[in-house]
Specification:
With 175 residues, this protein is mainly β. The chain has a domain of 119 residues: At5g01610-like (at5g01610, DUF538 DOMAIN, Roll), CATH 2.30.240. The protein has 2 helices and 12 strands. Strands 1, 2, 3, 4, 5, 6, 7, 8, 9 and 10 form a 10-stranded antiparallel beta sheet that branches. Strand 11 and strand 12 form a beta hairpin. The chain is globular, with a radius of gyration of 19 Å. This is DUF538 domain-containing protein. Keywords: Signal. It holds the Pfam family DUF538. It comes from Punica granatum (Pomegranate).
């Protein structure tokens, strides 16, 4: 009898905690992260007790902050307080190149700075840029390789299924 009562209580608590998280934006806020890290247009999301999340957007899109961010159709990672690690599905533009964002973190919220790890460098942004979910402009499938709105260079990382190696291809666009 006591075991059944404990199971019912645990089930009730789990339902209550999952009901209090109504959106991925609530999850971000609860973990000390700004809501605007993800754009408007989240179709569905999953978040587990280990912090792993998956977000499915209506469409792949770009959002403009101090620089441009690209969001794939699916974004995933692991959320802990003040950071998102093992991130996939977000790329940041630097000059004419696109780099995958591997991690996002807010070290000291009062500093007003958020850091994006793009592999070669940590980009700093004002935390205030990410207060609200941004509008996101749809991109065509041919744009996803890095050619965005008149860019002069295409940088695309592709992997061969045979060699599993990454190749950096550069292509100059003729005007």
């Amino acid at each position: 009898m006591l075991l059944v009562l404990c199971a019912l209580l645990l089930s009730s608590l789990l339902q209550h905690s999952s009901a209090s998280v109504s959106s991925i934006y609530d999850v971000l806020k609860a973990h000390g992260l700004p809501m605007g890290l993800l754009p408007k247009g989240v179709k569905e999301f999953r978040f587990d007790e280990g912090g792993r999340f998956e977000v499915h957007l209506d469409q792949a899109c770009n959002a403009k902050f101090e620089s441009e961010l690209h969001y794939d159709l699916n974004v995933s990672g692991t959320i802990s307080y003040g950071q998102i690690g093992a991130l996939s599905g977000i790329s940041a533009q630097e000059l004419f190149l696109w780099f995958p964002v591997k991690e996002i973190r807010v070290d000291i919220p009062s500093s007003g700075i958020i850091y994006f790890d793009v592999g070669v460098v940590f980009k700093q942004f004002s935390l205030s840029l990410f207060e609200t979910p941004p509008d996101c402009t749809a991109v065509r499938s041919e744009d996803l390789g890095g050619f965005h709105d008149g860019a002069v260079m295409i940088a695309e990382l592709s992997s061969s299924s045979k060699s599993k190696s990454e190749v950096l291809e550069h292509q100059i666009v003729q005007e």
